[in-house]
Specification:
Layout lengths: L9 E5 L4 H12 L3 E6 L2 H8 L5 E5 L5 H15 L4 E4 L13 H13 L1 H16 L3 E6 L11 H21 L4 E8 L10 H4 L2 H6 L3 H14 L3 E4 L4 H9 L1 H11 L4
Parallel strand pairs: 1-2, 1-4, 2-3, 4-5, 5-6, 6-7
Helix pairs in contact: 1-9, 3-5, 4-6, 10-11
Bound molecules: NADP nicotinamide-adenine-dinucleotide phosphate.
């Protein structure tokens, strides 16, 4: 795969009002891209755009197909191209399958974490293909590789990993790589990692949004199909596949009581 220099390219980052998306919008702008930063909170996006001339704010909810199509049409009108799409908007709404109300949380999670990416990839496909070579970077999670966490969130991220891999084979024929970046514990607005931050040992497990953003820019440059950050979390993923009995035994000891 050829390298892609972000300089002069047009990038769209979803979930850019906070956390990993906010840091990624800044990192891509610092790398020379023009960045459309999108999320629902306009004031946060305006604040972000005021920090860098190359960042343009656009308010959109990725659970709304008309809003996502409006975003793609605006990018086409303003810039005539899109080379980089970072699908980062995502959340966990609980959903441990204990009661009927969990069904709604499950649907909400899938609608944002999986269908949000489906909407964005669909709306931007033609723009990305016509401007190829290009990149799609989907922010999944280590929870999309190892089944720890709320079932709804884990299921949405496993599905996103599958979507990314399958679309990756198809889209590369059009000159667009589709990559997954899988963060471990990262301290952000939504995931403050309060429990881990209480101990020196726990704090060592927690990464920063800026570190993830640097990895995303690296993936944009080189088109790696998959990156885990912090990198050492990958040991768990490898264990899952090469020593499954050990994985199941260790995982069983760490699982929570319902
Ligand atoms: N932090 C971690 O430990 C961790 C680990 C693995 C994976 N991840 C993944 O990384 C991604 C970013 O998470 P984060 O930790 O940076 O969380 P965050 O700080 O809460 O940021 C989430 C972003 O998503 C946006 N968003 C939420 N719902 C949206 C919607 N319906 N439409 C458009 N934007 C929406 C939010 O903006 P608005 O509220 O303004 O819309 C916000 O900008 C998520 O996909 C998450 O699953 C995080």
């Amino acid at each position: 795969m050829t390298t892609l220099d972000p300089r002069g390219k047009v990038a769209v980052v979803t979930g850019a009002s906070a956390g990993i998306g906010h840091a990624t919008a800044r990192a891509l702008a610092n790398a020379g891209a023009t960045v459309v930063a999108t999320a629902r909170r306009t004031e946060k996006l305006d604040q972000l755009a005021s920090t860098h001339d190359a960042i343009a704010p656009y308010t959109a909810d990725v659970t709304d197909m008309a809003a996502v199509e409006g975003l793609a049409a605006w990018v086409r009108d303003q810039y005539g191209a899109c080379h980089i799409l970072v699908n980062n908007a995502g959340a966990s709404f609980g959903g441990r399958l204990l009661r009927g109300a969990d069904v709604a949380a499950f649907e909400r999670t899938i609608d944002l974490n999986l269908m949000g990416v489906v909407r964005c990839m669909t709306a931007f496909a033609d723009l990305l293909f016509s401007a190829a070579p290009g990149r799609v970077v989907n922010i999944a999670s280590v929870a999309g590789k190892l089944g720890f966490g709320p079932a709804a969130y884990v299921a949405s991220k496993f599905a996103l990993v599958g979507l990314t891999e399958a679309a990756g084979w198809d889209w590369r024929r059009k000159g667009v790589t589709v990559s997954q970046v899988n963060p471990g514990f990262i301290r952000t607005e939504q995931f403050p990692q309060d429990e881990l931050m209480k101990s020196a040992w726990g704090r060592r497990l927690v990464g920063t949004p800026e570190r993830v953003a640097d990895v995303i820019v690296d993936v944009v440059r080189h088109g790696h199909p998959e990156r885990t950050v912090p990198r050492w979390y990958r040991a768990g993923v490898v264990l899952r596949h090469v020593a499954a009995p050990v994985y199941w035994s260790v995982g069983g000891k760490g699982s929570r009581r319902l």
